[in-house]
Structure formats: structure tokens, C-alpha cells
Amino acid sequence: MPKQHIIGLSKEELSAVLASWGEKPFRTKQIWQWLYFRGVQSFDDMTNLSKDLRTRLADNFVLTRPKIITQQISQDKTRKWLLEFDDGERVEMVYIPELDRGAVCLSTQVGCAMGCKFCHTGSQKLKRNLTAGEIVSQFMVARDTYGEWPSPTDATRYLSNIVVMGMGEPLQNEDNVIKALNILSDGDGIAISRRRITMSTCGIAPKICDVLEKTGVRLAISLHAPNNEIRNALMPINKAYPIEQILAEAQKYQQKDGSRYVTFEYLMLQNINDSPQHAKELIALLKKHKIRATFNLIPFNPWPGCDFMPSTPERVKVFADLLNQAGFAAPVRVARGQDILAACGQLKSSTQKTPRT
Ligand code: SAH
Ligand code: SF4
After folding, report:
1. pTM exceeds 0.70, yes or no
2. Per CATH, which fold does 4-62 belong to?
3. Tell me: the pLDDT tens digits for 197-252?
4. 147 and 109 in contact (C-beta within 8 Å)?
5. Is 344 an annotated catalytic residue?
6. Ligand 2 pocket mutation, candidates 105, 116, 130, 306, criterion most atoms within 8 A of CB
7. Looking at the domain 67-340, which fold is it?
8. How far does residue 166's CA lie from ligand 1's centre (Å)?
């Protein structure tokens, strides 16, 4: 039996292991801080533990990171890592810097089964779910790279936000995603506050509220269409969970916590969903469901083999103005990391392995 990864155990699981070894409860917090506050990569570095306990940990667990296969830095400083896990499967992770902070975009699956027509990840079948440890350790690699151990405070860190918008559909892997988000936001460790974490979903309606309640993170929904006819053509999952059902969940979520806005991601696709008429339909839809929302108008990132075209800037402006006039914030996202294919929906794990030497 290969040893288990210690990264990805919940605090309760870690504490249960330690209790079964006869260790005092305070050891959990000590080890947790070594792992997630200081970011050490060896049990030997946990210097306030006895030699015996360190040996026992090393006999039972591994403490390793995913392997960095490549790292690319874009002209705009966006960075993309290709990471490989123990079984050779790979995912991409992206860091998008702003002036004094930035968001790390995490993947939750290798590939994706949702098959959205515009998405490069979706053109690759689902290989497997990532474990909680694999999701958390992506972020840890980013912290290693930027030297942000021991964990700085909210005010001073560059890696300040997390968006679950990389490869995969988080609500198809909800148990591991819940566990990972709770580790990432735990105040004794990595401590990214829940308000700075946003999970994006294509809209697996029955799971939305459950995951938000169990994690407290923010919700983004990939809407991309003002009606079911267009959405069905773009996102096959819409046939199972049509727009009304998704919006009803968004409404439920807001009823529990009135201060929360839902972000709707809306991909601007030339002549598909980007006319003034579409904007008006969208406004009517959200008003009907009484949802407090902001929009993210995302420029479509083309990839080889995909026939969609990005909307012209003129069309995007008219669309955004209509939303604004109706009282919805609708910033147009600037595509980041274009030159290294690091933008939304362009992530695709390379199946080609580097030759062993
Ligand atoms: N599965 C989740 C999260 C990952 S996709 C979801 O679908 O929400 C993250 C975002 O990238 C989604 O809004 C998705 O619709 C968008 N996206 C996918 N392909 C894209 C492309 N080619 N150009 C721009 N955005 C894209
Ligand atoms: Fe999967 Fe999201 Fe891509 Fe759709 S947009 S295929 S749900 S990763």
C-alpha cells in the first residue's frame, strides 16, 4: 500500500490519527501550522515535535507537492504551471496578478465531462476527479513559487484570492472540493478568507446551495445565454438543469444571506448571444427571478478546432451599456495571459509525457 498524502486530510481526520497514536490534542494544530502556515516540505522540519513523532509521521504519510512540469510567464505577468500528480495525470493552474494582489485559478478535475462547446477543457473527456489534497497542493505550489510562507496576512499577500475556475466542474467533484476549500480557508493555516474564494459552476442546480453552505465561498455561474434554446446549444448540461432551475437555486442562496451577490459569467460569442435583444432578454430574466447579480463579460478565447468567434468590442460595449443601464455591474474582462494560453477555458492538460531520462 502506498503511503497516504498528509496534505488533504481534514483537521478532524488528522486529529483522529494523532489521537489513535496517543498524542495530545494540541499536536494537531502544531502539525497543521507546519503544513499550511509555514509550508514545510519535510517532517524533519517540524522541530517542535519529538523525533519519534516525526518518524511516525514519515512512516505513515508522504509530504510532497505535485511535480512542476512547466512554468510559463506571460508578458502581462500571468503565470501558468503544468502540474503532474503521482499517477502521471496533469492539470494546469494559473496565477493572474493585479497591482498588489492576485487570484490563483485552481483545477478540480482532469478534463471535464460537461462538454461545453466553447471550452477547450471540455473537448477533453473526464479522466478523473482530483483529490482534496491535489486541489489544495496546487495552491501550495503557487505559494512556494512566490515565497509566501509563512502565511502572510490578507493585507500583504500577492496570492490573495482563489477562483475555482480552472479545469473541471467543481460540483461534479463536490466532496473533495468542499474539503479542499475548507482547508484553504482555515485560519490556522493558509487562511484565504471565504469571501476571497469564488467557485464557478456550469450550474449543477441541486448541489449549488449545499456546497455554498458547507464552505461559505462566493458563487459564480457560467450562464452564457439569455434563454434555454441558446444555452442548450452551448452547454449540454442545460438540458438536465435548465436556466430557471439554476436561478431558483441562486435565489435560495441569496435569501439565506442577503449581502451576497451572484456573479454571472457571460461569454461574448459573435452573433450567438451578443445582440442588444439578447441583453434585454437577459435583464428581463434576472429581474423576473429577483436576483442581485453582477456580470463578468468574458471575451471568448478561441482555440484550434473551435468555430466560435469573439464578439467585436463595439458589440460588447453596447451589451455592457444595456446591462449597466438596467442596474447591473458588467465589467468587460480583459483577456489575460493570451500569449501563453492561460486564459479562461483554454486550459488543457498536455497528455504528452516528458521522456524519462
Ligand atoms: N466548470 C466551471 C469552472 C471552470 S470553467 C464552469 O464552467 O463554470 C471557467 C470559466 O471559463 C467558465 O465561465 C467557462 O464558461 C469559461 N470558458 C470556457 N471556455 C472558454 C473560452 N474558450 N473562452 C473564455 N472563457 C471560457
Ligand atoms: Fe467543464 Fe466548465 Fe469547460 Fe463546461 S466550461 S466543459 S463545465 S470546465
Report:
1. yes
2. DNA polymerase; domain 1 (1.10.150)
3. 999 999 999 999 999 999 999 999 999 999 999 999 999 999 999 999 999 999 99
4. no
5. yes
6. 116
7. TIM Barrel (3.20.20)
8. 8
